[in-house]
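Continuing the batch. This is chain 6 of the set; chains 1 through 5 are on the previous pages. Same settings as before, nothing changed between runs. Recording input and output for traceability.
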Amino acid sequence: MLSKLRTLCLKGIDGREVSAEVYIASGLPAYTVVGLPDAAVKEAKDRVVAAVRNSGYDFPAKRITVNLAPAEIKKAGTHFDLPIALGVIAASGALGKEPPARLGEAYFIGELALGGGLRPVAGVLPMLLAVKGQGRLAIVPAGNAAEAAVSGVECLAASSLKEVSDWVKGGELRPCAAPPAAPRPAASIPDFSEVKGQAFAKRAMEIAAAGFHNIILVGPPGAGKSMLARRFGALLPPMSFDEELETTKLYSVSGLCAAGSLMRERPFREPHHTISDAALIGGGSSPRPGEVSLAHNGVLFLDEFPEFSRPAIEALREPLEAWKVTVARVKESVAYPARFLLVAAMNPCPCGYLGHPTRECACTPIQVHKYRAKVSGPILDRIDLQVQLSAVKYADWEGLPKGESSAAIAARVLKAKELQRRRFGSAKANAFMAGAELRRHCALPEGASAVLETAMNRLGFSARSLDKILKISRTIADLEGAPVIRREHLTEAIQYRMLDKAALAAV
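Output for chain 6:
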């Protein structure tokens, strides 16, 4: 007998419909799965056999063939357990001579425990979003109910295979209820008012937050680089619903969805410098999003930047320009979004005290050159704001009053973001402007061409650097509420592109 059910799979962060066909024929007992299954799908046999028997059904001692179509798409994950087990029960005739109509009305997703219970799985939200509007139900594990509810697809939650089989025969299942609209979480990020001194760096961080510009901080140990970076998230505006959905899809695919609900806070990822290239960018034998994608719509903080491997640093080139990562393998190619804001921090030399007013640098010129060479020109050219921090003086540490709070800075950032939202008609930021948009919104003030020409000819700025200067200038103008870029905005923006000419000059 043949049974046919609908289920779903993932390709990257997008869902695809899959047909699970189960055919039981006479012959020696055998169990075969076809349709490019991975190891987890092949191992489903042992879980399915135990779950079916522990749910009160006989597992047929016959030749069983499971086909997951379309066959050219690789099938990965444990969420195929439920449709396969239900298909075996239906094909064995335990649900009647003819498969019940409900069997073809829903998508079935879930991992089985040996006792027949349903366990939550990764990727439920992106899978359901792919079939939104098709008018079919989805049966999901109870542990995924909150995540499924926000997809917009009508979903029912089940705790066991027995509950699902009873529903197919006409029983009832509880609907997946959307969690109550909780207020946005209170900020758990330390406040900017705790940072003493470093006014230039604070201003650069404000500009970075307002225009979503990448930033690198260079300075001696204890200057406040990590302190500033870990407070940076408090300056960013709340995510829009679309951004929350995009971010949650990535975390759902990675199995990192907290409590199965939408992510409300912007991600802040801080990988250790020993991270592998694949873990940073994404990949693996079964491709998964890397840290650059998990930081999508949020912050990727790379502390001790030159201590990361050279291949890992160079792998950031494409994501910093294209805002996505394409992982290509022989059998498949998947793309993950990676629109993150890079905050990098580094010392001026291996010991950290090159140029320090009171401490002597112990590094040789060769050591300094080797250390700085880890951050190549192409990478540095892609980082919008380049800030040199000096050591904090005792007078600043002891005498300065409490600095401006994160809330005060964030209020200015929010006003600038509102101007950008009206300008672009979306959540797009100034950092993402290109081509015609750059010319339309970043018209040069009178006499500014000579300033940019000097910057290019005497300071060696690239064409990309000039574009970034214009974008930064537009953000500075937005922070002031100025409708057009003025000359002072342009000259301030140029200051944030001087790091490679000063702090990283050859010894």
